[in-house]
Write a structure and sequence with these properties.
The chain contains nine helices and nine strands. By secondary structure, the protein is α+β, with helices and mostly antiparallel strands. The protein folds into two domains: 90 residues, Phosphorylase Kinase, domain 1; 172 residues. Strand 4 and strand 5 form a beta hairpin. Helix 5 runs antiparallel to helix 6, helix 5 packs across helix 8 and helix 8 runs antiparallel to helix 9.
């Protein structure tokens, strides 16, 4: 049983019925969901089970599932030194009507609530201990090895993608060649971290990416709160000072300032100023 939607039509799980999907996962995992805990996003749904675990269900088109597979949360369970919920198991099945797949991953419950939305409008209340745990996890992640490729926004990040995003938004005679590729979360924002205890979750898109992608992504999601954006830059100073970190800063800015820029985005001016300074730094290198 699947959602009943016309072939080729975009599925938005925030507004379409997910009852049949939830029932199917309950049967497969032999559990029950607490109805008042269901969280709905555009392409995923999550809920707490009666055995005090969490299940995240995602629908993804086949052309968005690369040769590396579609098992980011499962593969992330092998990572060490990172604060993340333990993975318990999964169920995967094909959509009966479209070229898409469904996947439900069960994990331990988070140690706290998500800090906020992907882009914040006010500073979160997190401690210095939280920042230390945050840095320890990101440093541990970047020191490990994987054959996976990060898929931010479900698109594999490549040199061509980086160059196209930067060149498509910013002029300037500077080299966009990435020098260092390291394991990254791939979707680091305030909606995927908890407080007061730090924990990083939603590992579907992790893999190798240019150094600084995670730091730049979190900085970009903090720009509406200048003091918070500055704190991110201070905490991840080594990333931002690296050449690849500067390229990732431009990459993140391109998503704010590019062709799809929203004229009311409160981050526009801060992103524009940072992009100008970063281009000057790259041209001076």
């Amino acid at each position: 049983m699947t959602l009943s939607v016309p072939t080729g039509r975009a599925v938005d799980l925030r507004v379409q019925s997910v009852d049949e999907i939830l029932e199917r996962v309950e049967r497969s995992l032999q559990t029950r969901f607490a109805p008042d805990t269901v969280v709905r996003k555009r392409r995923s749904v999550g809920a707490r089970t009666d055995r005090d675990t969490w299940v995240r269900i995602e629908r993804r088109l086949l052309d968005k599932i690369s040769d590396q597979g579609w098992n980011g949360t499962e593969r992330a369970a092998r990572l060490t030194g990172i604060a993340q919920p333990a993975w318990q198991g999964c169920v995967v099945w094909p959509d009966a009507e479209e070229a898409a797949m469904w996947r439900a991953d069960e994990t331990d419950l988070l140690p706290g609530g998500p800090i906020g939305t992907a882009v914040l409008s006010e500073a979160p209340q997190v401690s210095d201990a939280w920042w230390r745990a945050f840095n320890a996890s990101l440093d541990a992640l970047s020191a490990q090895n994987t054959s996976r490729v990060a898929t931010p926004d479900t698109e594999a990040i490549t040199q061509d993608l980086v160059t196209a995003a930067i060149r498509g938004t910013f002029p300037g005679s500077f080299d966009t060649t990435v020098e260092e590729w390291v394991p990254t979360h791939g979707d680091l924002n305030w909606a995927n971290m908890t407080a007061p205890t730090f924990c990083l979750f939603d590992w579907e898109d992790w893999g190798n990416a240019p150094r600084g992608l995670d730091s730049a992504s979190l900085w970009a999601s903090s720009l509406a709160v200048p003091a918070l954006a500055d704190r991110v830059r201070r905490e991840r100073h080594a990333d931002f000072e690296s050449r690849d970190g500067k390229l990732m800063t431009l990459f993140a800015c391109s998503k704010i300032l590019g062709p799809d820029a929203h004229p009311q985005d409160p981050r526009l001016e801060a992103a524009r100023q940072m992009a100008e300074q970063t281009i000057q730094d790259l041209q001076a290198d």
